C-alpha cells in the first residue's frame, strides 16, 4: 500500500463492502480468453463494487492491476487477493483522486511496479442525496465535483504521458446523466460532465490511437448506495423501478468495461454503453 503525505478527506464514502449485506456479486461469470494478456490497468475505486468486479474480470483476462482506493484498506486487500488468485499481479495505492499530486503518485507507483500503463478505468465517485437544492452546501458541491470529474482529469493527465497507441480509457458515468435525479442534483451534474469529457477526450486522443469510452450503469448494488445516504425504504425498493424490476450486480456491469478495454472494441471511441436493467435512454 502506498500513500502520499497529503490529507485524504474523511467521510463515510464509498463505504466498506466487507460490511454490506447482501454482498455484491463481483465474480466473473465465464473463463478468461486472454483478451487483456500482458496489459496493465489502473482502476480507481477498485476496492469494492463495480471497480472490484472490473479488476477481477480484467485479471481473469490477463491484466495486472493497480487498485486505487480512498480509505477502505480491508476491501482493497481483498481485491488484491482476488486479482492474485487469477494468477496476475496487483498493487494497492491509497489515494484521493481529487488530488492531482496523488494521481501522479498512482502513475509513478504503477510504472515502478509494472513498467507500463495500457488501460485507465476512471470509476471512483461519490454521491450525497439531498431533497432540496438549498440543502447542498458549497463544501459538498465542491467535493462531489472534485472527486467525480476533477479526479478524472487528474488521473488522465497523470497517465497520459505513458499511454501508447492501442491504449484505452473507460470512464464511469451514470443513467442519472440521461434521466436526471431529483435527489442527486450535484452527482447527476458531474455525470453529465463525465459524458461530455468522454466525448471530447475521445476527439482529443483518437489521432494518437487511444480510444476513450464510457459506461453508464443503472442502479447497481454497491457500497455507494447504503453509504451514500439512501433511506432504508429506498434501499428496500432499490432498482425496482427498472424494466427488469431489480438492481444490477457489479459483475453484470464489468463486461462492458472489458469490451471497451480490449480489441473487440477497436472501432469504438466516444461512445457510452448502458448496463441499466432495460431503461431506454438517448445514448
Automatic annotation (TrEMBL):
> What's the domain of life for this entry?
Bacteria
Q: Name one Pfam family in it.
A: adh_short_C2
Q: Which InterPro entries match?
A: NAD(P)-bd_dom_sf, Sc_DH/Rdtase_CS, SDR_fam
Swiss-Prot/TrEMBL keywords: Oxidoreductase
Basic and acidic residues bias spans: 1-26
Coiled-coil segments, which residues?
Answer: none
Region (Disordered) residue spans = 1-32
Q: Which family does it belong to?
A: Belongs to the short-chain dehydrogenases/reductases (SDR) family.
Q: What is this protein called?
A: NAD(P)-dependent dehydrogenase, short-chain alcohol dehydrogenase family
Q: Which organism is it from?
A: Novosphingobium panipatense
Amino acid at each position: 500500500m502506498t500513500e502520499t503525505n497529503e490529507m485524504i478527506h474523511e467521510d463515510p464514502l464509498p463505504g466498506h463492502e466487507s460490511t454490506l449485506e447482501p454482498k455484491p456479486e463481483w465474480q466473473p461469470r465465464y473463463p478468461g480468453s486472454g483478451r487483456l494478456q500482458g496489459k496493465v490497468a489502473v482502476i480507481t475505486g477498485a476496492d469494492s463494487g463495480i471497480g472490484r468486479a472490473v479488476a477481477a474480470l480484467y485479471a481473469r483476462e490477463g491484466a495486472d492491476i493497480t487498485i486505487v482506493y480512498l480509505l477502505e484498506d480491508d476491501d482493497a486487500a481483498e481485491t488484491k487477493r482476488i486479482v492474485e488468485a487469477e494468477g496476475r499481479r496487483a498493487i494497492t495505492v491509497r489515494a484521493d483522486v481529487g488530488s492531482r499530486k496523488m494521481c501522479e503518485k498512482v502513475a509513478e507507483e504503477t510504472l515502478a511496479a509494472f513498467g507500463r500503463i495500457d488501460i485507465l478505468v476512471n470509476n471512483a465517485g461519490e454521491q450525497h442525496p439531498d431533497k432540496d437544492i438549498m440543502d447542498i452546501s458549497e463544501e459538498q458541491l465542491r467535493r462531489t465535483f472534485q472527486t467525480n470529474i476533477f479526479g478524472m482529469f487528474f488521473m488522465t493527465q497523470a497517465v497520459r504521458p505513458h499511454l501508447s497507441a492501442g491504449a484505452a480509457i473507460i470512464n464511469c458515468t451514470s443513467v442519472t446523466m440521461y434521466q436526471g435525479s431529483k435527489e442527486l442534483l450535484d452527482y447527476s451534474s458531474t455525470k453529465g460532465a463525465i459524458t461530455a469529457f468522454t466525448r471530447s477526450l475521445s476527439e482529443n486522443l483518437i489521432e494518437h490511437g487511444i480510444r476513450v469510452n464510457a459506461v453508464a450503469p443503472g442502479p447497481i448494488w454497491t457500497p455507494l448506495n447504503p453509504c451514500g445516504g439512501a433511506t432504508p425504504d429506498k434501499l428496500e425498493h432499490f432498482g425496482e423501478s427498472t424494466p427488469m424490476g431489480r438492481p444490477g450486480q457489479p459483475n453484470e456491469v464489468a463486461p462492458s468495461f472489458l469490451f471497451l478495454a480490449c480489441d473487440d472494441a477497436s472501432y469504438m471511441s466516444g461512445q457510452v454503453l448502458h448496463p441499466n436493467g432495460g431503461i431506454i435512454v438517448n445514448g
